[in-house]
Amino acid sequence: MIERAALWAAQLATDEATQADHDACEAWCREDPRHRLAMDRMRGFDRQFGRTDGLEREVIETLLEQRSQDTRSGKARRFGGLALGLVVLAAGGWLAAQSLTVRAFFPEYATQRGEQQTVTLTDGSRLTLDTDAALDFRRSDDSRTVSLFQGQVLARVAREKGALNAPHPFIVQTGDGTATAHGTAFVVRRDEHATTVTVIESAVRVCLAPPAAGRCADLLPGDRARMANGRLTRLGRVDPDVAAAWSEGWLAADDEPVTQVLDELNRYRARPVSFDRSALADYRVSGSFPLSDTDRALEGIVRSTGLALSSADDGALVVGRTK
Fold first, then answer.
1. Cα distance between residue 126 and residue 147, in whole Å
2. Which ranges carry the FecR N-terminal domain (predicted)?
3. Which of 100, 107, 187, 191 maximizes the CB count within 10 A of its CB?
4. Is 109-240 a domain of CATH 2.40.30.170?
């Protein structure tokens, strides 16, 4: 499926693509929702590639060039640059074995904005993916590893022992570091510039990724830690039930700044609500608001705080102070 999507993406990116080619690709996408998801990921590859930093871009370009040198034949000759790289990487099954930077373009599990999904892994562990999340799972003789590329995930870990009757560690890794547990529940959130780990049950050890590897901290229920730019920082404690409420479809707030709650709600909305951050700086909110109906959640936040909800000229919703 990935190879087929890569071929379609490469073919449609050329000047030779006809309307019949576009129609055939669309028909293929309609055959299975996974086809369209794979196609969307392929089309997004070039955009994501452009946002990588200079070193990551150089590594990917070098890998693509090395992989492409011996495969420029037949149909592939019509495709150039990054599109050809997509084809040969997908066809060789080589992509999945590479760095997090490359693998992030083709996650095993992914959700769209406003969507949540729970999956049961082969070891019996359950992962709940929050809105706009992407990850994959790998199992070896001595460990179980979830690679979280973006978004938020709640892991409920099943106990498992290896061949020598030793516990199999369960690890969630990001570009910032790792969170390791033996039978527990915890949340890992990967934002653009940081990773935050929150423990719901039992204990978790968080460790920074190289070059700061070796710097670790042990967390208990309610503990949180942030990993960013080679620094590990303990954050304020939270109620574990509140921290995991999103996995049950609720946006829970316990005397939190309303701007922070609106930011979180916007992660689930197709069209984010607008607000003046400075004008709402003194407002706080408590309550539980349904993520399955973000308009109703927004109304509840506005009602709880005494704020006003209006519409801009373009139809966008705006939260502001009452006049």
1. 14
2. 3-43
3. 187
4. no
